[in-house]
Amino acid sequence: MIEDTQSLPDSIVEKIKKQHLFECLTADEIKSSITRFEEIHILTGELAFRKGERYHKGIYFLLNGEIMLTRPNSKIEVSCCSCPVGLSTFLGKTMYTMNAVAKSDCDLLFVHELCIYRLMELSDDFRSKLIKDIQLRLTQLDNCSSAFLMQSVNQTVSGVMSSPVISIQTGKSVVEAANVMAEHKISSLLVVNRKQIVKGLLTVTNLTRNFLTNLNNNMNRQEVENYMDIEPVTFPPEFPVVEALNELQIAGKTHGIVMQNGRPSGIVSIHNISLMLFENSHLYCAHIDNLNTFDELKTAFSQIFRVARTLATSSRVSREALTALSSIHKAIHSKAFQLTSDEFKKEKGFKLSDHSYCYMLLGAGARGEMDLRPQINNAFILSDDMSEEVENMFHEFASRYHENLVDIGYYPHNSNDDVMTINIVLKHSKWISVIDSWASKSNKSDDRYAFAMLLDLAALEGDIMLAWSLRNHILKKAADRPAILTSLIKQSAAIKIPVSQFGSFIVDKDGDHAGMINLKTQSLSYIINITRLLSIYAGITDMGTIERIEHLERKKIIPQEIASQAITAFDTITETLINEQINQSINNQKVTSCINPYSLSLFYQEKLKRALQFATIYTSYGVKILNEI
109: buried, middle or exposed (CB in 10 Å: 19+, 13-18, 0-12)? Predict the structure, then answer.
């Protein structure tokens, strides 16, 4: 049994510092990070773990001796000396795929995964080396393309936590706490003392079970510290959500605190984790993961409308359907990336995972708002130390990957179905330079819009830290020069919505879409763009449009009535768009964002008109706020 808090002996610290993962860490840093461990001695022929055993929730560090990784009925054997053992299962969190057999008497240090993530947060050097070791081990064991298994590292609590953290001081009453929760529409509060030191976590469950069950006796002792959880579960930002859910369930708790550098950075709940896991465990995604050819992916893409049809009839609101569809599209993008990479490696002898890069989805893909026929919006960030030869290979790969996505069925870059698309492969420093150019006073081109759109980015493959760095730079640039937002919102205001002041639809008069309106570029983009710009102004890092609107309301940037109407309008336009695309698919028509509004029932015509008319109000409201900066 591993104790919650232990002190690592100096003799162990001396041994572990000799391993390359710990070279840049001081003894004090190692001891403060590794507080849950177990010293293990195994004899020759004994097993550290067996194939098929469930993950032990940590990594074994071999201090002396030799461990051989073997698989029954397989010729694969990997010798481990003075190195970590159990790396591939640490990544996947499932079962061990190999036997770890002691070839000689061995001393091991088992370090709990919470401590590993703490070390990853503390040291970029440790994190980078660990990821490279995992990639190498995966290649040694399965000769597989390890980059695609690495994406599970990105499913972390930082992606589902609520932030910033709302707190209440000790000494305050539960009535005051309940009012704060109601005001911010949250279900937990961090409890701190006057020095802002965390003392506990108060949740709605605490109030229900501990206060309300004995209301008469508790009325004379209402201070929050009497009912809070004094030993809340804590996680580092990079802790996997699957394991976080397990930790909370074992502890019998509904909420946990995400800590970064010793300070709370967010709150994670079982509810939010469960929603994310449901969205990402769709059966269709599992089906896609088992496909092996581009033709199979093309067929899967063509059948997405069947999933959408089911979602449209079972989901309470259409934005839930968008989230589920986005998960499917991401699965297709990832599988296409894997197949393209394997194809590229076979032809060119070039392996992407040997280099530091990040492949990002932009726009709707990052927001989780992809419809039945989204446009390709992606980009690559390359490390600055990459050679010109390697950079050229990434350019060639990006072009090949884009062609494969188009062949699967996605709309290519520069088609006219969306407001803005970009497909860029740049080194990190060049990205920074381009962003600064987009944000400059002298730049009057339409490319400036890309500055705002890059807030909507999500890493799909490679090093997520490169994407975070880029996004943080955009937020900082906007904070330093808020006038950027004013000029960007004027571009948004220049787009004309397709409904007149008299309440009639304004449709295209000629061309391929005569008699139609584009629900994305002429309506939905209003709500998305204004919400995005207001979020940049408010320093909000939420990704989805609805989450941003709700956060803007919590921060008092927009009133409750405006927020409610914005969400209703978003749902109305989304519902109309998805239903029209389903009908287009069923009738073997080209799937677009265009619709003949007069083909709708009168009820839905009026519903759509109200949503479009609100878009004008929302835009005017956003312009007013940003003009007052």
Answer: buried
> Residue 202: which of 553, 210, 245 has the closest Cα?
210
Contacts of 112 (CB under 8 A, 6+ apart): 2, 36, 37, 57, 58
Count up the domains in the chain and report the number: 4
- What predicted TM-score, i.e. pTM, was given to this entire model? 0.63
How far is residue 461's CA from residue 458's CA, in Å, rounded to a whole number? 9
- CA-CA-CA-CA dihedral for 472, 129, 35, 89, to nearest 10: 100
DSSP 3-state of 3: coil
SS3 letters for 434-457? Answer: HHHHHHCCCCCCHHHHHHHHCCCE
Distance, CA of 454 to CA of 361 (rounded, Å): 10
- Specify the DSSP element, H or E, that contains 41: strand 37-42
CATH number of the domain at 29, please.
Answer: 2.60.120.10
pLDDT digits (tens, 9 = 90+) for 81-122: 888 998 877 765 556 778 899 999 999 999 998 899 889 888
8-state DSSP, 261: T
For all residues of the chain together, what is the average pLDDT? 83
Q: Is 236 helix (H, G, I), strand (E, B) or coil?
A: coil
Sign of CA dihedral 85, 87, 93, 98: negative
Q: What is the pLDDT of residue 619?
A: 85
CA distance 405 to 71: 37
Domain assignment present for residue 593? The answer is: yes
Residue 610 lies in a domain: yes
Give the CB-side neighbour count of residue 298, counting CA atoms within 13 A. 10
- 406: tokens are 């188009």
Please name the residues in contact with 202: beta carbons below 8 A apart, sequence gap of 6 or more. 168, 174, 177, 188, 189, 190, 191, 224, 227, 228, 229
User: How many residues appear in the chain?
Assistant: 629
Domain that holds residue 59: 10-151
Question: Among residues 597, 612, 448, which one has the least CA distance to residue 522?
Answer: 612
Position 517 in a domain: yes
- Token pair, residue 473, equals 């730079």
Structure-token pair, residue 167: 């707190």
Which stretches of the chain score pLDDT less than 50? Answer: 1, 143-154, 280-281, 314-316, 415-422, 449
